[in-house]
Amino acid sequence: MNNEIPKGLVFSTKSPQRKKRALVLITVLCILQVCLIWPIYPLFASPTPQILGFPLSFVWVILILVLAFISVFKFFRKDIVEES
Amino acid sequence: MIILGICGIYLLATLVMGIIPGLKVSHSTTGYVAGDRSMNVFILYFVLGASIFSSFAFLGGPGWAYSRGAAALYIIAYGAMGMVPFYFFGPKARALGVKYGFVTQAELLQDRFNSKLLSALLAVLTVVVLIPYLTLQMKGAGLVLNTISDGIIPTWMGAGIAYIVVLIYVFYSGVMGVGWTNTFQGIFMLVIAWFLGIYLPEKMYGGIGPMFEQLINSEFRQALTAPGLTSSGAPWDWWGFSSAVIVSAMGFSMWPHFFMKAFAAKSDRTIKLTVVLYPTFQIFLIPILLIGFSAVLAFPGVTPADSILPHVLLQMDLPVILIGLVCAGTLAASMSSGDAIVHAAASVGVRDGLSKIPSIQNWMSSGSNERTLIRIAVIIISLIAYYFAVFSETDIVSLLLGAYGGIAQMFPLVFAMFYWPRANGKGALAGLIGGIIVTLFFLYNPEYKPLPMHEGIYGLIVNIGLLIGVSLVTEPEDVERIERYTEL
Question: Would the ipTM clear 0.90, i.e. be above it?
């Protein structure tokens, strides 16, 4: 029985394209998450310059939030097309 | 009196909104706990948004911005990715719920890992972490009604009034009562937060830009430099900030009152679209933080920092109707989390805890006894939280801090449940128990931490190590069981 159960991680095998897209999404999101912690966020930690009135440290977090939203939204749209 | 009247109207409207959906759902446990799996995107979006944004967001968010500056951005930083795992876990959980009748995450884990002990352990963990969370919501509601009545309504009565309303609609309507009231409360909170977040900087400084310009040119500049300050006022280090973001992002979708909504969703698309739209709810935190920043120069030295919002409202000579609406908004924040929490804690406590006792299991299997028992649990859990909120001197905040680290320990198990077929019950139990023990140890003995990271990180390292190690040296679960969760 042991032989039938893989020892590594197993992701969906139904749609290889979706699997690939999911891996790309997760990679992008991991990069974006790193942008919000050390070592990337310290590069944008200063309150200056102000952008649209907000401190840079604030704008950087909002920018990453927007990029994360766009990434997941694009993945979702492809999902919907594939489902239909 | 006008302010109290507005809060009274708000409470009455919430009660009506909470009771009506109860007339439509079935009288089964699935109806009570999972709303007959009929929640659409609109309701699910507000349920998940409003359940997470609690008294902490409305009172604590401005408090953090006011006293800790850029550290408050941590709340947005973990929320940016925290919801994404739910995009993948949610539809899988929902499909299994429909097929096998699951309505809680512990039921899934128990089935996958073939361990009733794991289910009971998760039931205890859920109730233990949710009661302090509920207690804080009750304290927030009591504080609001006490403050706006100038002390005429004591805190115990304020908390009691707000949570009797919650108790009635959760008791009667179950999760659909939570759903409809959270939608109403969520819209209300969004409007109030945006209004205040724009209005206060405009009135005090002439706009958001001029406000930050003055803050940057003051001593507060250091606080606006990420990662801001600690609660003691010293600069927060990147170890602490980064690890807190990671632990919170991993724990975000693991909260039982959050994860369980996967079983209430109408379809996979409902769950996915809710995740996609969720950052729009995160944006709601921006005006919340602006409220706190606006008070830094205008009202220095206010303690505790969490009271900054009521303090600003009382000091600024604002129209009474506006103060009433803001207070009702704060009540909404407290109640919209409290209702989901009490519902989840009661459902999990009964379904995953009490139901494992054979004599109770037999009794529950007949008629609507299970639903009755969950309703009784709703009352008992509310009373326990009320006791802690009003009478006990126990340090609830430290309990809640520990709870976040504890909840994150579920993440490796849920991930392995769907994606690592070799994981088994012994590994899951060892990982969960080891992770919780280590998290609690470092929470109460921070001087032993090798690096100044969040204690949950240490718990996760031990958790993942034990899950992998113990699973690999013990027998795997049956193939048939694993295939229900992972496509082999």
Answer: yes
